[in-house]
Write a structure and sequence with these properties.
Elements lengths: L15 E5 L3 E3 L12 H15 L15 H31 L2 H25 L5 H5 L3 H4 L1 H14 L9 H27 L7 H26 L1 H9 L10 H19 L1 H15 L19 E6 L6 H15 L5 E9 L12 E8 L11 H15 L4 E5 L1 H11 L14 H16 L20
Antiparallel strand pairs: 1-2, 1-4, 3-5, 3-6, 4-5
């Protein structure tokens, strides 16, 4: 053994480090959640574990969270609750305004919470969680559509004639039978429209199937309520009226619509020609319309990726990272900056020492003074970083968005250009050409020019 060499305790070569707020190095830890777990519940458990751990820490050592996913979850839940409440209030107000019958309006409005209760019950049994995607697409107008038709027809039958209390249930039954088929087919067609979404697989299926399932449950629930509970409630609370009354808005719209309808029916060719001309004219604006596959979720915080030359040492990379943190902290909107450079000791996320993930924690948007929107804030951050930290390429994204982009496409950007080959000189030439071409396109934010064939330019 002595002929082979000397055995002694050594150390592992450092290939990564963490820094915080431009003050120096820190130790960071990441909680890994098991697949299928609830992120908010896991985060609360971690907080409880940290509270129990704090008394046992040595003096001068503290634990400060730099990213808490439960904050985003709570904001999303709050947004969904506000949107659902505002939508329900708006629909109820419109119903009262148009129906002109307080009791009828309340009966129609009762379909909203009851249909949502049926939808929530179905979601629980189907294993669908309540989130921005599954609940954000709920349209209360669709839910009460059949109920409005049912109650309106019942109101029409109960008005303008003398009906005894004993005859009311029979009149309501006859009114319901008249609109049963059209209501069924109208709501059924809407349900059929959502069925193809259930066949989606992969990422598209995970994103949109919960939405389709929730809407279908709500529509089926509203259809069942329309045919069963609504007529029963009408028989209990609605009274016959000798004179049929129309609301002020219906009278005004009717006075304008009836003459216009008569003229359109009397001149069918002219009506069809005008409609076709309007449609063709609208096609002129199609090339000027923007498009978006799905709205971007604002996570609240920002993640900045920093790219340097691959040959840079870890010490120089950390100096650059500290300068980046100090620059970002100059913005009053930023409360905390934590960076992760290179690969951690537990290599769950392998990166080179030239790469850094910088987590920027922001104040609520209503407290911003530098910019009015996140896009404007990112643009100002990009300009200042390019000016004060030269020779580094930057990309701006969000914590969860960055991770999903990397898992889906292997890059940490929404749009990226990949060039494959084994000739480095040719790759460098093609990369420079791509940067030259893409730089002329309005909109993309390119990484700072680095003389390296591996510059990860991204849009």
């Amino acid at each position: 053994m002595a002929q082979l060499g000397e055995v002694k305790v050594g150390s592992v070569t450092r290939i990564g480090a963490a820094t915080m707020n431009g003050e120096g190095e820190a130790v960071i830890a990441m909680t890994l959640m098991l697949a299928g777990e609830n992120g908010r519940v896991v985060a609360e458990r971690v907080k409880e574990a940290v509270k129990k751990m704090l008394p046992s820490l040595p003096p001068g050592i503290s634990i400060e969270p730099f990213y808490d996913r439960s904050d985003l979850v709570n904001r999303v839940i709050k947004t969904v609750a506000i949107n659902l409440t505002e939508g329900a209030i708006l629909v109820i107000a419109v119903l009262f305004f148009l129906l002109g019958d307080l009791r009828g309006g309340l009966i129609v409005a009762s379909a909203i919470p009851l249909s949502m209760l049926i939808a929530f019950t179905g979601m629980v049994h189907a294993g669908v969680s309540g989130n921005l995607m599954s609940l954000g697409a709920i349209d209360f107008g669709l839910i009460v559509d059949g109920t409005v038709v049912m109650i309106e027809n019942i109101t029409r039958h109960l008005s303008g004639k003398k009906i005894s209390r004993e005859q009311t249930p029979h009149v309501i039954l006859q009114a319901g039978r008249e609109v049963l088929r059209p209501i069924f087919f109208a709501v059924g067609i809407i349900i059929i429209v959502y069925l193809p979404i259930l066949t989606l697989e992969g990422v598209e299926g995970k994103m949109f199937r919960p939405m389709a399932i929730t809407v279908i449950f709500a529509l089926v629930g509203s259809l069942v309520l329309t045919f069963t509970l609504m007529p029963v409630l009408a028989s209990f609370f609605m009274r016959p009226r000798e004179h049929e009354r129309e609301t002020w808005m219906i009278r005004k719209v009717g006075g304008f619509y009836r003459p216009l309808l008569a003229k359109a029916v009397a001149r069918p060719l002219a009506t069809a020609t005008i409609a076709a001309a309007v449609f063709v004219s609208s096609l002129v604006f199609v090339p000027f319309m923007g498009s978006e596959f799905i709205p971007r979720l604002d996570e609240g915080d920002i993640t900045v990726q920093a790219w340097r030359l691959p040959s840079i040492a870890l010490g120089e990379s950390l100096k650059s990272t500290l300068q980046i943190e100090k620059t970002l902290l100059k913005f009053p909107e930023v409360t905390q900056v934590v960076s992760r450079t290179g690969t951690p000791e537990v290599a769950t996320d392998v990166m080179g020492m030239e790469l850094s993930d910088i987590f920027v924690k922001l104040k609520p948007s209503d407290q911003w003074t530098t910019a009015e929107s996140k896009e404007e804030l990112v643009e100002k951050m990009s300009e200042r970083l390019a000016r004060e930290v030269p020779g580094v390429g930057f990309g701006f994204t969000q914590p969860i968005e960055m991770r999903f982009n990397e898992m889906i496409a292997g890059v940490r950007a929404d749009v990226a250009l990949k060039i494959f080959g084994d000739d480095l000189d040719r790759l460098k030439e093609l990369g420079d050409q791509a940067v030259h071409v893409l730089s002329a396109v309005s909109g993309p934010r390119m990484c700072a020019p680095i003389k390296s064939p591996v510059c990860p330019c991204s849009a």
